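During the reporting period the student researcher (J.K.) took over the structure-prediction task from the postdoctoral fellow and processed the backlog of single-chain submissions. One of the processed entries is reproduced below for the supervisory committee.
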Amino acid sequence: LFEDPVMLKCTHHICMAHLSTHSVSGALACPVCEEKTPLAADGALRVDTTLKLVVEVWKERQAPKENENSESSPAQLPPTCGFCEEKLATRRCVQCDGFLCEECEKTSHSKGFFKSHTVVDWRADDRK
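J.K. obtained the following structure tokens:
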């Protein structure tokens, strides 16, 4: 999930922490489509506060409730893929802590800076 998301010229988003990884010669290459976003002299981009709020609300809703008892609750259904937002997730990126369907794992997390990320079964509990 995004931490301090920044929207690029191509309208894809990247975490503020990843900006330095993709910045070259006053421009930022999108990790998804590789379109260049020019950077201001100070290299700063604005955090997309709307998306940040959406992510925070989503995280709150995903957090287990204190009174939930895993033994009495029905089998947990997988969450929806965070990329396509259509299919059920089967995998989870450890670094992004985001859920992926099989297709999005192959198309998004197999190239660019995502290819170094570790993708595990969606139920794996190895969050950092």
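The committee noted the following: The chain has a mean pLDDT of 79.
J.K. will present the remaining backlog at the next meeting.
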